[in-house]
Amino acid sequence: MAITKYEPAPPGARPKTNVPGAGAPSVFNPILPPEAPGATVDIAGDFELPTYDWSSVTLGGSGSGGAPSSYYDALGAARGLEAQTASDKLDLEIAKYNQQQALDAAALQRKGLGAQEALKFYQSQLGNVAGGTIPEALATTLDEQKQAREDFANTTYGNLLSRLGTRYTEAGNLTNEGFNALQTYLQNAPQNAFATAPRAVATPAANDIAQYMQSQGVDAARVQPGLLAAQAAAQGGAANYNNLLTTLAATSNQAQQSRLNEQAMAQRLAQATLTAQKAAQEGALDQAKIAQLNAIQEQYTASRLQLQRDSIARENALQDAIAQLGISGNLAIDTTELTETPEERAARIAAATAAEKAAADKAAADLAASRSGAVNTLAKQIAAAKGKNAPALQARANAFIAANPTATPAQVKAEFPQLRAAAVKAAAAKKK
Amino acid sequence: MAYDPSLFEQQRRGLQTSFAQQQALNTYRRYLAETAGQRPITQIQEAAFGIQKQVPRLTANYGKRGLQGMGVRSGVYSKALGDYASERARQLGYAQSDLANQLRGYDLAATQGLESYQESLKDLESNKARQIAADAAALLELR
Q1: Relative to the CA of B123, which of A134, A149, A246, A400 has its CA 20 to 30 Å away?
Q2: Contact (Cβ atoms closer than 8 angstroms) between residue A153 and residue A326
Q3: In a domain, A174, yes or no
């Protein structure tokens, strides 16, 4: 909102008193305590010198002049409206400020409540993972899975072992059945071809013409050499043949006995082979079971380790988050629930503001009261001074005021002889 | 090879057939040999008083020379008839021995065939038992 500026009143003008706002405190003029008549001399009047450069002027003697009363009437009215507008603006700004304060307070409270809730959540979570603790549900699931897999491995092993035992018994029975049948066959089947073969019998040679020889008076004994030779040939052949049969029968008998022994040995060897096979397969099953159980244990351990790592990482993250909450300061926010309404809050703040304002006004009034009128006027004019020499002039004036708070107009004029002249000159220059 | 009784029965039938063929052939050969071997024996036996009439002719020959006859007993004739009888007995005995030996050869072949057949049958049974044992071991391996 733009600020309306008015030209300063001409020298000698008098204020108008019959317009609205006349006599109200101006935002541009400090409220000063009333001065006792005759106690002070206005050495500069109400000259406005906010934009005048004091660097080339000096204070001088008093002057005289005047302005139409209508000017002061208009000026007074304008200042009254200006004061009202400024007051409304101030109220609006205060309301806006209060509203913003309420919004900020609510936002801050939400931030604090959020931080507290986050802290509660983090702390509740922290209890579940403190010291690498594995969450119970996960640990239970993991244990159940491990137990189920171990049960499966053991059950499978038991089934395979039982099946192996059954197969071993079946194979043994089958083997025995085959070899027992062989034994029965060998014991009952004939192996006596040579033993039962007809033996050779040497047919005795006979002299079938012996009777004729006797009839011819020839001694039958003369045929004896031939008979003996024939007999020897016949007996030799028969004996050889019979000896051969005897030898072959003995060999056959030995072969039969060998077969029976072979059957018994083969049966024992087959049973031993089956037993060895069973033992080997049992060993393989044991190895497989051990390997399976070992793999299950390794996976279980790895899973638990990973869960512990995750838990520790989670714990660290929660600790970091809790630390971050502390660092943010959000936990220190007062989250006490507000019970006052916005109107009550606005009224409370307005009252506090009014009290501060009153205190400030009182302090200003006390200060002004502790000074003389000439000093107050000097202070007001000096405060509005501008220009490159203004700081030096203000320092000098402030030092004078501090040393002489009740200085008389004469003393002020003596200290700053050209002040009034400069004010008059500046007013005139501005009027032009 | 899994145990298959039909395969062993085939082998058994094969053995039986082979044995029967071998025995039949051997028997037939024995018959031929006996027939052929009996022929010289018969010839020797019949030569003395048969168509050849070796003995009467010998006696008659010595009779013509006055060395044999009614009231005549010469040592020459006695020696000649004795030598003839002895030689005839030896030849006959040898022929009979030859035939007997030859027939024993066929008998031995028949006995050996029977023995071999019996051995083969037992081999067959042994193979069956071994096959059953091997199959049982294989079944155990299958689990």
Answers
A1: A246
A2: no
A3: yes
